[in-house]
Design goal:
Length: 418
RNA sequence: GGAGAGGUGCCAGAGUGGUUGAAUGGGCUACCCUGGAAAGGUAGUAUAUCCGAAAGGGUAUCAAGGGUUCGAAUCCCUUCCUCUCCGCCA
């Protein structure tokens, strides 16, 4: 959510933002509605003031005068009620429109119509040269008995999978390593609630527009798609002190995604599944663009370092306008090399929001001058499992069908080979 | 699932229809007092929004929404949340 004052004063910028993000949003509709809102409100407030003054008088006046004043106020009240009714209708529409106002992308965000227009800004690592025909992760893992897609589909349906045996041990090795790695970066690990109230999804910007991608319970709660949601909700309606910023959290949670719009995509394997696990970095910091930028680079770099320590070739892209979420100012994706497909696949996404989310969630802090301000927020994937396994397994596959683990993981796994 | 209690400002805690943005106490801030401090004294101490250059003023907010009323923290309804006990249960 943006400040209505800012929107009114910068409607050309909002228009450009919507265009760049390829969103159909007409700021003029909102401004017109806001004009209505302001007019109604100022009218209503004037009459309420009159009402309040008279109400005070009524207590200290003779019975005669009192009944006269009361009948006068009855008339004021009737006209008030009509306007209050109109205002209520206006406010409902106003709030819906306000939730659809896109945040402004940074100048450095490239223009583009889809993720195909994301621009590579960095490439790291040497792509493996196999002396044999490399297999895909499905074949490798199935043969090693560390994944079972057939039974996964039997139990869950489309996109179902079991991880078994060393597949599970490998996940735990990654998780333990990730916990150590990011703890050293001074992130506080958090296991959040995974069933969350709607407010958290609206607050982070996933709702109201993303309803069909989210699992819902019969109580009207939602299953989280990322730990970002509860971690952001954690400080909702709070006033933090400047000294406790930045807050750096490392959330770990299962992630549930319906993938409703992606039925034909990535139909096999561990790339796109309905449930997975993810470590997520979340930061709340002071409301300052440079600070946001600094932490944005930092969280992205953290994940790059983690991948580098695993020795998996990757590249980092800056996402184009169309590939940005409603609230995102700028986003980097880290994509890992997948040998069998001969292309990079996304495993991480780092973005910052300025105060877009914190306005919705009402997360504020008192700055050095004592002024209340909305904090800035940002988040980035630390590491997702099992998606990371796709690249890990394919890049480290051996001619005999085994997987040779990178040194650091072997330490956590207990053996060098699967 | 059953039964009950409750949600008021930074905190504690009054307040059952009008002068209550809200007593009182604590905290905090400034000043006075002091050689300095403690104690004591005085004043101040919410947020949002609108008007205004500012001073200042209007409106709203006592969980949320709705209702009754000229007027609601106070009465009525709905919802949400918290707590306690019982039951069930990893």
């Amino acid at each position: 959510m943006l400040d209505i004052k800012f929107i009114r004063e910068n409607k050309e910028i909002i228009d450009l933002a919507a265009k760049k993000k390829r969103l159909d949003f007409k700021v003029d509709e909102l401004i017109m509605l806001d004009d209505k809102r302001k007019a109604l409100l100022s009218n209503i407030e004037k009459r309420r003031a009159e009402q309040n003054v008279t109400s005070d008088k009524i207590t200290s006046v003779t019975a005669d005068q009192r009944s006269k004043l009361i009948s006068e106020m009855k008339i004021v009240k009737a006209s008030l009620e009509a306007d209050e009714e109109s205002l209520k209708k206006v406010m409902t529409d106003w709030q819906l429109l306000m939730l659809r106002v896109p945040n402004i992308p940074d100048m450095s965000v490239p223009d583009g119509v889809s993720d195909a227009d994301n621009e590579e800004i960095k490439a790291w690592g040497k792509k493996p040269n196999f002396t044999f025909e490399p297999k895909d992760h499905i074949e490798i893992m199935t043969k090693l008995n560390i994944v079972d897609f057939e039974r996964g589909a039997k139990v869950h349906g489309f996109r179902g999978y079991f991880l078994t045996g060393d597949g599970v041990r490998l996940c735990f090795a990654i998780w333990n390593y990730a916990l150590d790695f990011f703890s050293k970066k001074e992130f506080v690990p958090v296991l959040p609630p995974n069933i969350v109230r709607k407010i958290n999804l609206v607050g982070t910007g996933y709702l109201p527009q993303g309803e069909e991608d989210i699992y819902k319970t019969q109580d009207g709660d939602y299953l989280l798609g990322t730990a970002e949601v509860p971690l952001m909700g954690m400080h909702g309606d709070e006033v933090l002190t400047a000294s406790e910023l930045p807050k750096k959290y490392l959330g770990f949670s299962p992630c549930y995604r319906r993938e409703a719009g992606a039925h034909g995509k990535d139909v096999r394997g561990l790339i796109r599944v309905n449930e997975f696990y993810k470590f997520e970095q979340v930061i709340l910091c002071e409301a300052n663009h440079e600070t946001s930028v600094r932490y944005h680079e930092e969280v992205n770099r953290n994940t790059e370092e983690f991948i580098e320590s695993l020795g998996i070739p990757y590249h980092t892209v800056i996402n184009c306008g169309a590939d940005l979420g409603l609230g995102q100012v700028k986003k980097y994706d880290i994509e890992l090399w997948v040998p069998k497909e001969s292309k990079y696949r996304e495993i991480s996404s780092a973005s910052y929001f300025h105060d877009f989310q914190t306005r919705r969630l009402n997360i504020r802090y008192r700055d050095a001058e004592g002024t209340l301000r909305y904090a800035h927020s940002l988040n980035s994937t630390a590491i997702p499992t099992p998606r990371i396994l796709v690249s890990l397994v394919e890049n480290y596959q051996q001619a005999d069908g085994t997987i040779k683990l990178p040194t650091i993981l072997a330490k956590y796994f207990g053996r060098e080979k699967i």
